[in-house]
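Data card: per-record layout.
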Amino acid sequence: MLYPGTQMNVPPNHHQEKEMPEININDLTIGQVKELTAMFNGQSAMDAPGVAIGTGLIGKYAIVRSGNEGVNAGVISEMDDTGIILKCARRIWYHRPANKTLSWYEGVALSGLSDDSTLSAEVPLKAIIEKYSITLCTDEAEKSIREHKAHAQS
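The structure for this 154-residue chain is written out next.
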């Protein structure tokens, strides 16, 4: 059966797409704008100049290790090949994983901190301008790091 005024055998509006939420262009990150630009130019996001490989990590809680700044944890705000910016950041001076069968800061990223670990107080923003590595934290580890008692440097 064809519906009146159409060449279709399904009712009009049968396949209407779901309404998409509105996006405020002022809330987009630079990486997201570059991804959109690449998409409209027929490129993949990774082909666009300056798009970092870790763009999908923005907004995630992670442990970041670097040569001069040591081991830090926080929410990734921005990143590129020159450095990374963390929000709600803490420096981890001494660390052991809560789970004693795990090792190094990767163990902390999985299980959280042992009681004898020492951390700085949280700062609103920290820029690390050098080479770095990123290890994403589990929800359990994030909670442990955020709630861990701050220690004064001795």
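Known properties of this structure: DSSP finds three helices and six strands in the chain. The domain at 58-154 is CATH 2.30.30 (SH3 type barrels.).

See the next section for split statistics.
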